[in-house]
Amino acid sequence: MRQINLFMALVWLILGVGMLVRPDLIPLQLQPFYLQMAVFAAVMCFYNVMRWWLMRLQRRYLEQEDETWLRRRRRPKPIDPTFDLSEDERGSQEERPGP
After folding, report:
1. HEC profile for 23-78?
2. Inside any domain, residue 92
């Protein structure tokens, strides 16, 4: 499904080039407009290529963001010694004053 825009760009390119190379294959009612139709096909080709490229960039950006988030989450944070409330050897032997 990711490659549909690239496929559609190829279809529009073939259609546009085909209209420019063989305008005699176009029905008589549409022959005065074959150049406009070829330009429209070129614009649609460009549009589909841009959508494919931007979706690829977005997917790459989101993957990098996910990896960064996972790295941050896995990294243990250092414990601040001023907030370390675990008892050390000295604290367990001495009596602490009560409130």
Report:
1. HHHCCHHHHHHHHHHHHHHHHHHHHHHHHHHHHHHHHHHHHHHHHHHHHHHHCCCC
2. no
pTM for the model stands at 0.60
Give a yes or no: residue 99 inside a domain: no
Residue 88 within any structural domain of the chain:
no
Handedness of CA 73, 74, 79, 80 (dihedral sign): negative
Quote the CA–CA distance of 50 and 63 in Å, as a whole number.
20
Alpha-carbon distance of 47 to 66, in angstroms, equals 28
5 with 52: CB under 8 angstroms?
yes
What's the pLDDT at 93?
A: 47
